[in-house]
Design brief:
heterodimer, A: about 300 residues, mainly alpha, MetI-like fold, 2 domains, two-stranded antiparallel sheet, B: about 300 residues, globular
C-alpha cells in the first residue's frame, strides 16, 4: 500500500542567520534613532557651553540694545539688537529678490520647457547650489564690491545690498528645487482638466497649479529663509560687519552668524564673551528650528491634501 | 461681414498674448540667474589663470603665503572630506534604510523625520559651536583633523539620509513583494533586491555631498583648520589624524582677509581650484545619474 509522502517540513533558516538578521535590524534601528540623538546633542552641547552665562544676562539689554562691547573693561554690554536687525534685514531683502526669481524659475523649468533645455537648466541650477559659500563671500569682497562702488550711489561696497544679492543667488537653487517638487506633486488630472477647458499653459499655472501647490511653495520659501538666516561666510565677508541698525539699502550691517565666526577665534574658552557667542548660537538654533518646523508643517499640509 | 472661420476671437488673442508675455518674463528670470553665474565664473577663471599650474597645486606656500602653492590646503581638504564621508555615509545610508524599509508610520518615525529635517537646517556656524563644544573640548580630541571631520560628518548626515531615502523609495514596491513571496526575509530582500536597484541613486547622493563638504568653512574654522601648516610637499600621507590642517576654503578666507600684499591673482586662483574641484565632482555625479537612469529597467 502506498502511503502518501509525509509533507516536507519547512526548512528552518540557520540559527546564525536569524541572529545576524536580528543584530542587523538593531543596528539599522540605532542609526535611525541617531538623527534624533544628534539634534539633541547639538542643542545640549551648545547649551552646555552657554548656560553658565544665562542667569547673569540682562535680557532687556541683550534683545533691545545695539551696544555690543563684549571686551570692555569698564562696562561689558552684550546687546545684539543691531545684529538681529542685520540678520532680519539681509534675509528679508534676499528673499524679496530670491522668491520671485526662484518661483519663476521653478515654474519655467517645470511647466514651460521640455527635453534638453529642461535637463540643462536643472543641471545649471544644481551647479549653482554647489558653489561654496566662501566663494560667494570672495565674490562679494572682490567683484560685486567694486561693481557696487562704481555703478551705484553707495559710499561702501560691502553692505546690506551686496550681501542680500549673494544670499539671493545662494537660496534660489533651494527654492527652485523644492518649488519644482511641489509643482510636480499636483495631480496631472488638475492640469488636464484646465487644458481641456481651453486654458493656455499660463492660465493653467496661474489659476490651477499655483493655488494647488501653495503649501509646497510656501515650504520652498521657508527653507530658503532658513538657508539665508544660517549663512555665515558669505555674509561675514560681504556685509561690511558694522554693528549698527541699517537705515538704507547701502548701509554696512552685521549678522548673528558672522559675529560668532569673527569673534570665536579670539575669545578664551570659558570666558563670558565665549559663552555669549554660544548663547547667540542657541538663538540661531531656535530661530532655524522654528522656520524648519513651519516648512515641514507646510509640506505635510500638501501631502495630507493630495495623498 | 463675418470674420473668416477659425480666426481667433479677441479673447483668444488676449490669452495668447498673456501666454507669450508670461513665457518671456519667466525665461528672462531664469536668464537673469544663469548669465551672472556664467559671467562670474568666467571672470574668476580669467583672473586666476596666470597662477594656475601643476606646481601651484603641489608645493607649500612661501613668503607668508604670498607665493608658492596650495598643497597643504588641498591635501587637508581631501582628508577632511574623505574622513567625514567615511563616517557619515554608512550611518546615513543605514538610517535611510531603517526609515524607508523598517519603520512603521508612527510618532517615533515622524520624530526621526522631523529631526532629519531640522538637522539639515541647523546653520553651519552652530555646527561649528557644537563641534567645538563636543569633539574638541568634551571628547578631548583637541583641534584636529578628526574633530573637524566629525563635525562635517554630522553636517552632511541629514542630506545623505534624504537622498538615500529618495533612492530607496524609487524602487517599486512590487519588487519587494515578489521577493517576500519567495520566502526571503526583510534583510535578504533589501540586500539582494532593493540595494542593487537603488545603489546608483545612493552613490550620486553621497558624491554630491563630497562637493558640499569640500566647500564648508565655518564648521572647520574652530575645530581643526589652521591658517598655516607646513607639510612634506607631494606626500599624500603627510597629515596625521590628530594634526591640525589647512583647507582650501579656509585658505581662501585667510588669503583674502588676513594676508596683506598678496598678489591679486592668488585668491582668484585658490577660488578657481576650489570651484573647479567642486563643480567637477558634481558634474561627475550628475553624469553618473543620467547614465544610470537611462539604464533603469522600470
Amino acid at each position: 500500500m502506498n502511503q502518501p509522502p509525509a509533507p516536507l517540513l519547512r526548512r528552518e533558516r540557520p540559527r546564525l542567520h536569524r541572529l545576524a538578521e536580528r543584530g542587523l535590524e538593531w543596528t539599522l534601528r540605532a542609526c535611525g534613532y541617531s538623527a534624533i540623538f544628534f539634534v539633541l546633542a547639538i542643542f545640549l552641547f551648545v547649551f552646555r557651553e552657554g548656560a553658565p552665562l544665562l542667569p547673569k544676562l540682562d535680557w532687556a539689554q541683550v534683545l533691545f540694545s545695539p551696544e555690543w562691547y563684549p571686551t570692555s573693561r569698564v562696562h561689558v554690554r552684550y546687546g545684539v539688537a543691531a545684529m538681529i536687525a542685520g540678520t532680519l534685514s539681509v534675509t528679508a531683502l534676499a528673499m524679496v529678490l530670491a522668491v520671485p526669481f526662484g518661483l519663476g524659475a521653478a515654474i519655467f523649468v517645470s511647466e514651460f520647457c521640455t527635453g534638453r533645455v529642461k535637463e540643462t537648466l536643472k543641471v545649471v541650477i544644481e551647479l549653482l547650489a554647489a558653489i561654496p559659500s566662501i566663494v560667494w563671500g570672495f565674490i562679494g569682497l572682490s567683484v560685486t564690491n567694486h561693481l557696487i562702488q562704481r555703478y551705484l550711489p553707495a559710499p561702501v561696497g560691502l553692505n546690506l545690498f551686496n550681501a542680500a544679492c549673494l544670499l539671493a543667488l545662494m537660496s534660489v537653487p533651494i527654492i527652485v528645487s523644492i518649488g519644482e517638487d511641489a509643482l510636480k506633486a499636483v495631480p496631472d488630472s488638475y492640469c488636464e482638466a484646465a487644458l481641456a477647458l481651453g486654458a493656455t499653459r499660463w492660465q493653467t499655472v496661474h489659476r490651477v497649479l499655483l493655488p494647488a501647490a501653495r503649501n509646497g511653495l510656501l515650504a520652498a520659501v521657508l527653507l530658503g529663509v532658513g538657508r539665508a538666516i544660517g549663512e555665515t561666510m558669505a555674509v561675514l565677508m560681504a556685509t561690511g560687519h558694522a554693528n549698527q541698525f541699517p537705515h538704507s539699502l547701502f548701509d554696512p550691517i552685521r549678522t548673528l552668524t558672522a559675529t560668532i565666526a569673527a569673534e570665536l577665534g579670539e575669545t578664551a574658552v570659558g570666558s563670558d564673551h565665549y559663552r555669549m557667542l554660544f548663547v547667540i548660537g542657541l538663538m540661531l538654533f531656535t530661530i532655524t528650528f522654528i522656520v524648519n518646523l513651519l516648512a515641514d508643517l507646510a509640506v505635510r499640509g500638501v501631502r495630507g491634501k493630495t495623498g | 461681414m463675418n470674420p473668416p472661420p477659425f480666426s481667433p476671437t479677441p479673447l483668444v488673442r488676449r490669452k495668447l498674448r498673456q501666454e507669450r508675455l508670461a513665457q518671456a518674463v519667466l525665461a528672462g528670470m531664469v536668464l537673469a540667474m544663469v548669465l551672472p553665474l556664467v559671467a562670474l565664473i568666467t571672470y574668476l577663471v580669467v583672473q586666476g589663470a596666470p597662477l594656475l599650474s601643476w606646481s601651484f597645486l603641489t608645493t607649500n606656500p612661501t613668503h607668508g603665503m604670498r607665493e608658492g602653492g596650495i598643497w597643504p590646503a588641498l591635501l587637508g581638504t581631501i582628508y577632511l572630506v574623505v574622513i567625514a564621508l567615511l563616517v557619515a555615509a554608512p550611518v546615513g545610508v543605514l538610517c535611510a534604510i531603517y526609515l524607508n524599509e523598517y519603520a512603521g508610520d508612527n510618532w517615533l518615525t515622524r520624530l526621526i523625520h522631523l529631526a532629519v529635517v531640522n538637522l539639515a537646517g541647523v546653520p553651519s556656524i552652530v555646527h561649528a559651536l557644537f563641534g567645538l563644544g563636543a569633539f574638541v573640548l568634551f571628547a578631548g580630541l583637541g583641534r584636529s583633523i578628526l574633530a573637524a571631520s566629525l563635525t562635517l560628518a554630522i553636517m552632511t548626515l541629514p542630506v545623505i539620509i534624504a537622498s538615500t531615502r529618495e533612492a530607496l523609495a524609487a524602487v517599486p514596491q512590487a519588487f519587494r513583494e515578489a521577493c517576500w513571496n519567495l520566502g526571503a526575509s526583510r534583510w535578504q530582500t533589501i540586500r539582494h533586491v532593493v540595494l542593487p536597484n537603488a545603489i546608483s541613486g545612493i552613490l550620486t547622493g553621497v558624491i554630491l555631498q563630497v562637493s558640499r563638504t569640500a566647500g564648508e568653512t565655518a564648521p572647520i574654522m574652530f575645530t581643526g583648520a589652521v591658517f598655516y601648516k607646513k607639510i612634506a610637499a607631494g606626500d599624500p600621507f603627510a597629515y596625521a589624524l590628530n594634526d591640525q590642517c589647512m583647507a582650501l576654503s579656509m585658505h581662501l578666507y585667510t588669503v583674502t582677509t588676513q594676508v596683506t600684499n598678496a598678489p591679486a591673482a592668488l585668491p582668484y586662483a585658490i577660488a578657481v581650484v576650489l570651484l573647479g574641484a567642486v563643480l567637477a565632482v558634481n558634474a561627475t555625479a550628475i553624469l553618473l545619474r543620467t547614465r544610470l537612469r537611462a539604464r533603469q529597467k522600470w
